[in-house]
């Protein structure tokens, strides 16, 4: 037997801790897959919402019917000559009816309602001088209000960011719990193998070698457990609605494309985490054992 | 090899022995005798650093044992063969794997031929794959001795290594220790067996240390 083979063999395979670490790692990895999916989905939602609402604005013109056409023309003229605006287009009646359909139902008699006129504006990346534009509009078309969607965009972006923070916090908690489990299991394993440590010390084994034997065993068990848990988590994710089918929170939950590789990183991260926590524990415990 | 300078040790309930000053030189052969509970096992444990002296100093292979780090001590133990009275093993490994441990844990090559010869010499040729819990007391002692000497140690410390063996096997094992001693290994054996001491003294020049009434003395040459 060479040194590596001995390192693999010196710690007995039996003991109550054998399944504890693997099972815990599997459960933690399973949960981590969902937390990871939530984190990725939240980022994607935030990006989608941001993309959908940024560089767009709406001008709402509330004017008496006899002034509506004139004010609309003035506003369009102002917008088309304002730096930072690439396009300004008056929304059709059908488009406005479409916007109201969700609240007021189909076949809306627009003519019978005193609705404002809406102008869809596309901004450049830097956007216009909004303060100056608002002043100019209020001077030339008193019924026009420039809405750059900030009041919509900010809560949505904030909500998505919070969701992502929550998911990341969950991942950190899962990682911390996993590290604690490995530490406790390593500690228990070292305590229940006092004779192994005594014999190894008797024959001249250094702490590093003894620690490595325990760390190797813990890391292997945690990695195998995490691999199984990640695989099960990924399979479970397949049963969620396809994220490509919608952009709302629920149907947007999940991985897309290369994102499916993310669960595969969990066993690697678990291995690193288990290795570091088991090593720190083993060396600490061995320091206290004469 | 091992030097005690005014060494005392107590377990908190009074001194087990005190003011012990002696030196075990390269190639020397010593026996350690004394009544049960006199401190023979404690003396041996002080020799290889499992216990530290309450006062005085123990120099092990050129280093003060109290100043050694755990890694220093481990490296030093790689040069020492130890036979414990209770013969502890890794119970899930075979006899052959246990015997080879001192070499394998330190990355030294294990020659299958040497291992086979050694196990045959100590009468364990048929037990190489056996697990330690299945061995008799005598077989455990022989396994422990084989493990202690496989790495050709500079010092061999043995605590009652023939306690469970018949006279023929005891002679056989002690002859092995005598061979090692002739090659330069310092040997210290704690034993009650006067016949064994007399047998060895017919083969090599051996000194007898006796622990009694809290002192380590050199016993008379008439044993």
Could you characterize what this model shows?
The complex is a heterodimer of chains A (290) and B (223). With 290 residues, chain A is α+β, with helices and mostly antiparallel strands. Helices cover 67% and strands 8% of the residues of chain A. Chain A has nine helices and four strands, in the order ααβαβαβαβαααα. Chain A is rod-shaped. Chain B is of the alpha/beta class. Helix content of chain B is 33%, strand content 25%. Chain B is built from seven helices and ten strands. Chain B has helices spanning 40-48, 70-77, 95-104, 112-121, 137-149, 167-182, 194-201, and strands spanning 2-10, 15-24, 29-33, 55-60, 63-64, 80-83, 155-159, 186-190, 207-212, 215-218. In chain B, the strands form two sheets. In chain B, strands 6-7-8-3-9-10 form a six-stranded mixed β-sheet, sandwiched between helices. In chain B, strands 2-1-4-5 form a four-stranded antiparallel β-sheet, covered by helices on one side. In chain B, α3 (95-104) runs parallel beside α5 (137-149). The radius of gyration of chain B is 17 Å and the shape is globular. The chains are: A alpha+beta (290), B alpha/beta (223). Chains A and B meet through α1, α7 and α8 of A and α2 and α3 of B.
